[in-house]
Amino acid sequence: MADILVLERINSYYGKSHILFDVNLKAREGETLCLMGRNGAGKTTTFKSIMMVLQPKSGKVYFQGKDVTGEKPFRLARLGLGLVPEDRKIFGPMTVSDNLVLGTSTGRKGIWNLDLIYEFFPRLKSFQSRAGGTLSGGEQQMLTIARTLMSNPAVVLLDEPTEGLSPVMVKALKDLVLKLKEVGTTILLSEQNIKFAMAVSDFVAIIDKGHIRYEADVDTFKKDDAIKKQYLAV
Fold first, then answer.
1. Which of 165, 186, 213, 223 is the most exposed place for a label (fewest CB within 10 A)?
2. How far is Cα 39 from Cα 204, in angstroms, rounded to an integer?
3. Which residues are paired to 217 by β-bridges?
4. How confident is the model over 82-108, as pLDDT tens digits?
5. Minimal CA–CA distance to 144: which of 193, 111, 96, 186?
6. Are 162 and 191 within 8 A, CB to CB?
7. List of domains in the chain
8. Residue 110 in contact with residue 66, Cβ under 8 Å?
9. How buried is 141 (Cβ within 10 angstroms: 0-12 exposed, 13-18 middle, 19+ buried)?
């Protein structure tokens, strides 16, 4: 598999606070890379740096072989990077279907349309006329993912998708991510839930205090109890 998203020596700051230190990551086409770490380790900052919501001070981001460092976030969305943010950011007063149609604003063509979305998310189909803000937290998470898929991204960035979800919704989300993998979706996942991460990922990278400390395929990671204990407090 070819590398579709590559980060080289990314350094990012909030004001004068240095958050990411020479971060290197590679996501391969059609696979799921999980970025793990404790709260405050730098996971969300990495995602913001990829999407240029937070412009890195130095380093490079390559997407599909092109240097996209410094691009505007909306241009990255048009190129095929789709972010599912940690705080969801749905439009509460708008209906589910209107939220989904907003995802098509990138103008990208691909397999995702309302019919396929409702096939993957049957619960959203039954709620299509309801205001997004009336959905439960788990349902809103599904709506946010579905809206991102409507942009037909080449890579989906899922930032802490299981946070605050019930066990039932976490199971539904796991099934969804596995289905997305079946149709060849490339996923970069930020996650603290180790059980969930191991069930859906191909590769794992651990970030700690802004440094990438560990990288391995998921089978190797499953056996590495010392690493889990050192960096994830498991």
1. 223
2. 17
3. 203
4. 999 887 788 889 999 999 999 998 889
5. 96
6. yes
7. 3-232 (3.40.50.300)
8. no
9. buried
